[in-house]
Design a protein that fits this description.
Blueprint: E1 10-11, E2 25-26, E3 32-33, E4 63-67, H1 71-83
Antiparallel strand pairs: 1-4, 2-3
Length: about 90
Amino acid sequence: MLKQFPSRYRYENISIPQEKAKPYCKSRFEEDLSEFARTPAERCPDNVMFWDDPYRMFSCTKNHRIITPPTDYLLPYWMGRYYGFIPPEM
């Protein structure tokens, strides 16, 4: 799963894939949600990507002035290293 994270956390043009662009249901905030979850590579960057709903249907526009820290990648990576799931050579 960590291999799917973007290498840079800046806003690029990210659009919703065609098969995931159809509204399936509504959220508790009355936003349209997709039937299928988006992978981390298909989502807009955020401080902690796990806090976002992967079923939300929105796109990002390119903006190189917004750079977020990769907190959501670093925490699982170092926990995996600590518990031995990720070897040092990876």
